[in-house]
TrEMBL record:
Name this polypeptide is given: Peptidase C39 domain-containing protein
Keyword annotations from UniProtKB, A to Z: Signal
Keyword Signal: yes
Organism: Nitrospira defluvii
Signal peptide boundaries: 1-29
The organism's place on the tree of life at top rank: Bacteria
């Protein structure tokens, strides 16, 4: 099971998602991100995929290069980074990063939003994924 990591900054969902996938704390993931020049204050973290993919690579994980459109929950791979709450601001796309997991016959979403009552979500009808990146986990 992937342990949830709550984002410590309003715009730190990409760092928190990577930390959850790597099995480490937000503080540790933030320090590694900073060493790579990645910051929660940089809009590229939640409006492009390169920063999160670089962070995952640093943690020994691999994400697909290209986004794939979300079609259905059943069609997702066993582990994926997903874009939800997708919207445009001044013509630039922004989203909230979450992690989809399917294991032991169960599916759930790990959401780093600190305002949620529970970070493990199964309320799939309330989330509106637009696209995802497949993630290869360590074996």
């Amino acid at each position: 099971m992937i342990r949830p990591v709550v984002q410590q900054e309003r715009t730190g969902c990409g760092i928190a998602a990577a930390a959850a996938l790597a099995g480490m704390s937000y503080a540790h993931a933030k320090a590694v991100a900073a060493s790579l020049g990645i910051s929660a204050q940089d809009p590229r973290l939640w409006s492009e995929t390169a920063s999160v993919r670089r962070l995952l690579t640093q943690f020994g994980l691999r994400a697909s290069r290209a986004t794939k459109p979300f079609r259905s929950w059943a069609d997702l791979p066993d582990c994926a980074l997903m874009a939800i709450k997708w919207h445009l601001e001044q013509g630039r796309p922004f989203w909230h990063w979450v992690v989809f997991v399917r294991e032991n016959g169960r599916s759930y979403v790990v959401d780093s939003n600190p305002t949620l009552k529970a970070p493990l979500r199964t309320d799939f009808g309330r989330m509106r994924p637009v696209w995802f990146l497949s993630v290869m986990m360590k074996r």
